[in-house]
Amino acid sequence: KQEVTQIPAALSVPEGENLVLNCSFTDSAIYNLQWFRQDPGKGLTSLLLIQSSQREQTSGRLNASLDKSSGRSTLYIAASQPGDSATYLCAVKSGSFGNEKLTFGTGTRLTIIP
Amino acid sequence: KAGVTQTPRYLIKTRGQQVTLSCSPISGHRSVSWYQQTPGQGLQFLFEYFSETQRNKGNFPGRFSGRQFSNSRSEMNVSTLELGDSALYLCASSAGQGLNNEQFFGPGTRLTVL
Q1: What is the number of CB-based contacts under 8 A between chain A and chain B?
Q2: What angle (nearest 5°) sits at the alpha carbon of residue A111, between those of residues A110 and A113?
Q3: Within a 10 A sphere around the Cβ of A62, how many other Cβ atoms?
Q4: Given A104, A112, B13, B90, which is the most exposed site by the fewest CB atoms within 10 A?
Q5: Is the Cβ–Cβ distance between B66 and B54 less than 8 Å?
Q6: Which pLDDT value is given to residue A99?
Q7: Residue A93 and residue B24: Cα distance in Å, rounded?
Q8: In sequence order, what are the residues at sequence separation of 6 or more whose Cβ sits closer than 8 angstroms to the Cβ of residue A88?
Q9: Which residues are paired to B78 by β-bridges?
């Protein structure tokens, strides 16, 4: 059974700093890994999708890496801004064909201090 | 292109009642998945529909059911509501049933069971 862990559960950093969020998963046989952000009471916004054959993806100030063999992914946020404050969730797609599903971590609540 | 829409956004029901939630995917998307999000359990997969067929199901009781229409819109039904069914219900759409498709989420329906 796939399990996804995100540590730390909460993180506060001053504006302008670079930061790294961590995600680990127990079963390395994944199809892809997706990072999302969720604002309070809202749905999920997709940030980056990394296919299992890829090592990293970049979008603006965000960079996500994937090390499938060690079951780890990181989300790097450069030059953080107050608008980056949200909960960040990673999710991995795994399972046999026809039975694949997304398994989510419990998230990291990020607060950027102005 | 319009995003995933969900109606209603908020619902208040009492124990024993039933409820139907609706999800309209992004135009052209044929796969719709449903998730339940609670503070205690996080995000959990309910089921996935593709071309009007349920192709995958999570570990939820039979009180949770769904369907998909020919226009890809999907509905989720919960019968005999329990207090523990209070949650944010999210639906996500993707272009197809391919393993590597990115999932896009709607804003969610907040269900409160009294």
Answers
A1: 56
A2: 150
A3: 17
A4: B13
A5: yes
A6: 80
A7: 22
A8: A6, A21, A35, A36, A37, A38, A47, A75, A107, A108, A110
A9: B19, B64
Separation between Cα atoms, residue B20 and residue B97, nearest integer Å? 24
What are the φ and ψ backbone dihedral angles of A38, each rounded to 5 degrees?
A: -135, 120
The amino acid occupying position A70 is S
What tokens appear for B74 in the block?
């999907």
- How many other CB atoms are found less than 10 A from the CB of residue A21? 22
Interface touch B45/A101, C-beta < 8 Å = yes
Residue A105: list chain B partners with CB under 8 A.
Answer: 42
- Residues B77 and B63: their CA atoms lie apart, in Å, by 8
* Residue (of A17, A29, A73) closest to A48 by Cα position: A73
With beta carbons less than 8 A apart as the criterion, state whether A73 and A64 touch.
yes
- On whether the CB atoms of residues B25 and B32 are closer than 8 A, the answer is yes
Cα B100 to the chain's mean position, in Å?
Answer: 20
Token pair belonging to A57: 């993806």
- In tens digits, what is the pLDDT along chain B, a chain of 114 residues? 689 999 999 999 999 999 999 999 999 999 999 999 998 889 999 999 998 999 888 999 999 999 999 999 999 999 999 999 999 999 999 987 665 688 899 999 999 999
B60 interface with A at CB cutoff 8 Å: no
Average pLDDT over residues A34-51: 93
